[in-house]
Amino acid sequence: MPACARDSLALCAFGVSVGLLLLLARRRRPPRPPAPPQLDTGKEQEGHAPRRLRKAETVLRRRTSRLIVVLEGSYDLHNQAAVCRTADSLGVQHVWLVASPTSAAADDTPPPRRHRPTRRARREAELRALSLAQMREACAAPPHSAPPPPPPPPPPLSRKITRHSAEWLSLRHFDSAAACVRALREASAVVWVTVLAQHAAPLDAPALRVPPPPARLAIVFGCESVGVSAEMAAAADRCVYFPLHGFSESLNLSVSAALILQGVFQKDPSLRGAMSEEERAALRRDWFLRLAKSPEQCKTYPAWALGTPPEPFDDLRRTDEMRGTEDKRIPPKIRRKLGERFVKPF
């Protein structure tokens, strides 16, 4: 047989072998999974509301005003901010903060560095006070009877902890527990106080039931060290606690708030989204206007609040397509620490 014929036969045999191998590999390949259902990506389309308004509408539909979180006498701003973030995440709109008379004395921690007056500012204040005293002594005039200064505003909550969630809550500040109790009675709220006393009922007790509407439920969390005040405990309709099963008798304030609030929502799922249409419309107008970042948006966003509300999302989570750029949200310092262990969180 000529050499060219042998080469042709060899090439044909090789081609047939490769084809058979490919056919076998294709048969052994597992079947492809069915394509997932097409989800709403939330992209802005012409004629549709912007994604940020649709997200705000979704959050607003799940907000409840039947549940009030009361934080009494907490002197740790980080705990206050964490409780506000927990309330926002679980859909609670109203958070009331009560300042305890002993909270200022109990808090010996210095203010944050950025709030401390500089050395020059302290020196100028001392000089101004000294010159004023000298003038009064020289003139032999009685001190000016000026009205007492207004109370200082409550300290701002840490945005690093709240992640701006406190900006979307209805916060109320009270100077005393008595003022808060009066406001709760005016709001027709049933007061549950969280304590560790023996007479407190466990949160998972079947006899412990959420009051039906139109009554509201107020859950009071006390100070980090001593709990609620005696005045607040006396005004309570029920005393409750979250049962623990370890050596620790208590939890962090924000952790206990998250567990108790979630337990209350599980007791009565109708709390989710329980809000009057008047309050929801007022919050919608306020939120949509605050979400506007440009003059053009300041004109168009309020129209969505006054007209037909945007269509809410089925799921508040970002889609996988949007999470592909999640690594850009992680600070570079954290990424450098992770090094090769850094993986995109999907």
**Which segments are poorly predicted (pLDDT under 50) over 5 or more consecutive residues?**
35-39, 103-108, 138-145
Q: Tell me the major beta sheet.
A: 7 strands, parallel
Q: What spatial form do the alpha-carbon principal axes imply?
A: elongated
User: What multimeric state do the chains show?
Assistant: single chain
Instruction: Give the integer mean of the pLDDT values.
Output: 79
Give the ordered list of helices and strands.
HHEHEHHHEHEEEHEHHHHH
Q: What is the straight-line distance between the termini? A: 64 Å
Overall helicity: 40-55%
Please tally the β strands and state the result: 7
C-alpha-based Rg, rounded: 31 Å
Total DSSP helices: 13
Structure description:
The structure is a single chain. By secondary structure, this protein is α/β, with parallel strands linked by helices. 43% of the residues lie in helices and 11% in strands. The protein has 13 helices and 7 strands. It has helices at residues 3-28, 51-62, 77-90, 103-106, 119-139, 159-162, 177-186, 230-234, 253-267, 277-291, 295-306, 320-323, 332-338; strands at residues 64-72, 92-98, 170-174, 189-194, 201-202, 216-221, 238-241. It has a 7-stranded parallel sheet with strand order 3-2-1-6-4-7-5, with helices on both faces. Helix 3 (77-90) packs parallel to helix 9 (253-267) and helix 10 (277-291) packs antiparallel against helix 11 (295-306). The longest helix is centred in the N-terminal third of the chain and has 26 residues, at 3-28. The N and C termini lie far apart (64 Å).
